[in-house]
Automatic annotation (TrEMBL):
Residues 2-239 form the ABC transporter domain. Gene3D superfamilies: P-loop containing nucleotide triphosphate hydrolases (3.40.50.300). The keyword Nucleotide-binding applies. Keywords: ATP-binding, Nucleotide-binding, Transport. It holds the Pfam family TOBE. One of its GO terms (molecular function) is ATP hydrolysis activity. The keyword ATP-binding applies. PANTHER family: SPERMIDINE/PUTRESCINE IMPORT ATP-BINDING PROTEIN POTA (PTHR42781), SPERMIDINE_PUTRESCINE IMPORT ATP-BINDING PROTEIN POTA (PTHR42781:SF4). This is Molybdenum ABC transporter ATP-binding protein. It comes from Cryobacterium roopkundense.
Amino acid sequence: MMLSIDATMPERGLDISLRVERGETVAILGPNGAGKSTVLGILAGLVRPESGHAHLAGRTLFDLGAPGPARPAPCWVPPHARGVALLPQEALLFPHLTAASNVAFGPRSAGAGRRESHAQALHWLREVDAVELAGRRPTELSGGQAQRVAVARALAAQPQLLLLDEPLSALDVAAAPLVRRMLRRVLANQTVLLVTHDVLDALTLADRVVVMHDGRIIEEGPTRDVLERPRTRFTADLAALNLVTGTRTHVGVMTDAGASVILPLATDTPLGTRVGVAVRPANVEVSLLEPRGLNLTVFPALVRDLEPRGDVVRVRTDALFADLTPRAIADLDLEPGTRAYFSFDSVDAVTYPL
Ligand code: ADP
Ligand code: MG
């Protein structure tokens, strides 16, 4: 075990327990206010929880004991002595230093000489495809370039644990893919906790994900398992999947709301078990007349709202949501309050035990 942390912080509603293996990248997913940054702050030594302990590579980062009055002498290792590097949401570079001097800061602090730390800075800048930026100051860097330099600076300190807080969220859509590809390469050899609310970051960068909600971990597992077979409505929303839960019957699933979902018979979920059915919103059809088909599951519903999302419009109801083209929206004359039939074919449904 490379990293373990157990911590509570009642004033932020936080109570978590998390383990990370050496070389693993774990994504922490969750909405604003879930407690993601707080977890990183606690590990970096910037935020002090009320109780708990954390260990990194056999060393104690902090040990504040169990909640309650009987406390051992608390142990709290200061940030610079933890072997932990935190990359905050906005790249924080020293404005008066060049990119190379920013990156050299870690090796310098660790006692390397000027020449040696400069050589290391160039090495890490090369790793993030930014060696040509070595002589620039932060004001001469774009957002994506500054983020590259910030990643190089974090890596140059050779941390045993790298903490990334939404590293791509401050970048414009054009810059994000390149930085994501760079991260995918350089994170492969590191032990990383990556906070994100973007499922694409998790899918491309993380071996495992934990989903946080209200200060707690509500789901965790290998990235694809969690994001393709969500167990909670909450994770399904993050993964942009429809999730229907219910009990397996001989024709499909009886939902908790009493509706029937049609599924293929061949399945590994025994009759009577609790199952989830996940359906992509692009696979949900919307029609004004009731559609018929042996393998169709149909939910009549009122359109609650229409949300433009790039090329498609997400049509939400209290049951399913569907992604339609603006053209289809116009053809169906959909607007909030329209009554329509939302349907999907059993071949487009993924069923799994909960
Ligand atoms: P996330 O990173 O998932 O958006 P945070 O860890 O920033 O969530 O916040 C978790 C909770 O802690 C929220 O309720 C937030 O309001 C609170 N919180 C965050 N930062 C502070 C702070 N500096 N002081 C007090 N409360 C905070
Ligand atoms: Mg945050």
